[in-house]
Amino acid sequence: MRGRLVAGNWKMHGNRAMVRELLDEILDQAGQLVSPPAMAVIPPAVFIPQVAERLAGSPVVVGAQNVCDQEGEGAFTGEISGAMLREAGCSYALVGHSERRALYAESDELVGQRAVAALAAGLTPIVCVGETLDERDADRTEDVVDRQLQAVLAATGAERAAELVIAYEPVWAIGTGRTATPEQAQAVHAFLRGRLGAVGADITIVYGGSVKADNAEALFGMDDIDGGLIGGASLKADQFLTICRAAAG
Ligand code: PGA
C-alpha cells in the first residue's frame, strides 16, 4: 500500500551508547509529529535487538541493512536469515543498496533472491535501485533502474510487486552532498511507477541520496516521491525528525 515512509540507514555506524542516545532523542519527539509518515531506523545488525527493545510500543520500527538470499538455516557463514531478522523485531530489510552492489559485488539476481527471502519471512523489502554518474551521463538512467527493478520482479513474481517498497538512490548522490534535484528525482520515480504496471499507483517509492533537513521538503513535495531513505542525516536526531516532519501527510 502506498504511503509516506522515512527510513534511516545508519550504515556501519554506532555503538551501544550512541544507539541509546540517538533513540532517546528520536522517541522524545517522534510521538509529537502530526500525521507522521511510517518511520524506521536501520542499524547495523548487532544493534537490532537493542533497537527493537527500545522502540517497542513506539511509532518507529526497525529494519535490517541486508537479508540472506537463502531461506531456512544452513551453512551460510556471515549471513542472517529473514526469519532471524523477523524474530529480532525487524519489519523492513534493505536489499540491493548500491554499497552492497558496488563493494560486495551483489548482482541483480542476488538482490532479487534477497527480496524473495525477505518477503518469505514477512519482512518488507526496500529495494534500492540507482544509476552511477557515468550511466546518467550516458543517458542510461532509465535502462539501469529498470534492469534492477525487473530483476527483482522476475524473482518475486510481478504479483508480489505491491508488497515492495522501492528506493531510488542515484549512486552519485549518496554520501556526496550532491542531491538529485526534485525534478530529476521525480522523473525517475514517475518512470519506475510506470514500469511497475497496474500496481504502480499502490507502491511506496522513496528517494535517497544526500537528503537533509533543508532539501527534504522540496523532494517530498513532488508527486511521485513518497518519502526518503536517509543515510548521514539519520544519525542526527534533529535532522532525522525534521525530515520526518517534511514527509508528514
Ligand atoms: P546519504 O545515504 O543520505 O548519506 O547520501 C543514503 C543511503 O545510502 O541510503
Overview of the molecule:
It is built from ten helices and eight strands. The chain has 249 residues and is of the alpha/beta class. The chain has a single domain (5-248), classed as TIM Barrel (Alpha-Beta Barrel). The mean pLDDT is 97. The structure holds 2-phosphoglycolic acid (PGA). The site of 2-phosphoglycolic acid has 13 residues, from strand 8.
Q: How would you characterize the largest beta sheet?
A: 8 strands, parallel, barrel
Proportion of β residues?
A: 15-25%
What strand line-up does the widest sheet have? 1-2-3-4-5-6-7-8
Low-confidence stretches: none
Task: Specify the CATH class.
Answer: Alpha Beta
Structural class: alpha/beta
CATH architecture: Alpha-Beta Barrel
Q: Can you lay out the helices and strands and say which pair or pack?
A:
Layout: E1 5-9, H1 16-30, E2 38-42, H2 48-55, E3 60-64, H3 82-87, E4 90-95, H4 98-103, H5 108-120, E5 124-129, H6 133-137, H7 141-156, E6 165-168, H8 182-195, E7 204-208, H9 216-220, E8 227-230, H10 237-246
Parallel strand pairs: 1-2, 1-8, 2-3, 3-4, 4-5, 5-6, 6-7, 7-8
Helix pairs in contact: 1-2, 1-10, 5-7, 7-8
Bound molecules: 2-phosphoglycolic acid.
